[in-house]
Amino acid sequence: MVNYSRAYRSYGRRDTPWERYAKVSGERISQVFEQELEGREEPFGRALDLGCGRGTYSPELAALGWDVTGVDAAPEAIAGAKARGDAAVRYVLGDATQLSLAELGTFDLFVDIGCFQGLGRQQRQAMGTGVTSLANPGATMLMLAFAWTRFRSMIEGVSQTEIEAAFPAWALLTVWPAPTAGLGWPMDRTSPQWYRMQLRSESA
């Protein structure tokens, strides 16, 4: 498991590996966010950016019309996010595996770019339970996660089976590959995937 607080302290003002990923793949990620608006009517509702880091994606979601809250367990990350001065985003110090303690309210969209994959099995179950408890009827979730590879000592991974096990109340709608071009070794040898899920109607 990644010690994110230590990582932020170590990198300081420099980009972390996941922030570098955002710079390389930002355009593709933006396309995914825009696609999520298809078929929706404004106001779109509330979005929760899980493991928001230093505010890499939350402002973009807000610019698209979502009422955005970003949550992260690393104080250094939340401090960095707030320092950006994005008044449209609410940043909260909180653990993605203990979401009920953060008093966040309920949401229509959940975004997870690299958070879930960095958790242990029990933590993943706790996160799945927490997300479900905060989901409004018909809520959707966008998750970007790396599959397991032989580089697991350097890059955390997760399988589709593990994701579905942690989110039994959610229907997996679509899965598609995320690009790795320009990431450099060993990231360009990995297999990141996008997962789009929706809360089942009987679970709402």
CATH topological fold name: Rossmann fold
- Counted by DSSP, the helix tally is 6
In terms of DSSP E residues, the strand content is 25-35%
- DSSP strand count: 7
GO molecular function, one term: methyltransferase activity
InterPro entries: Methyltransf_25 (IPR041698), SAM-dependent_MTases_sf (IPR029063)
Pfam families: Methyltransf_25
Domain Methyltransferase: 48-138
Give a written overview of the molecule:
With 204 residues, the chain is α/β, with parallel strands linked by helices. It has a single domain (4-203), classed as 3-Layer(aba) Sandwich (Rossmann fold), CATH 3.40.50.150. It is 30% helix and 25% strand. The protein has helices spanning 4-11, 17-35, 58-63, 75-83, 121-133, 160-166; strands at residues 46-50, 67-72, 89-93, 107-113, 135-146, 170-177, 192-199. It has a seven-stranded mixed β-sheet with strand order 3-2-1-4-5-7-6. Helix 5 links the parallel strand 4 and strand 5. Helix 5 (121-133) packs across helix 6. The longest helix has 19 residues, at 17-35. The chain starts with a helix and ends in a 5-residue tail after the last strand.
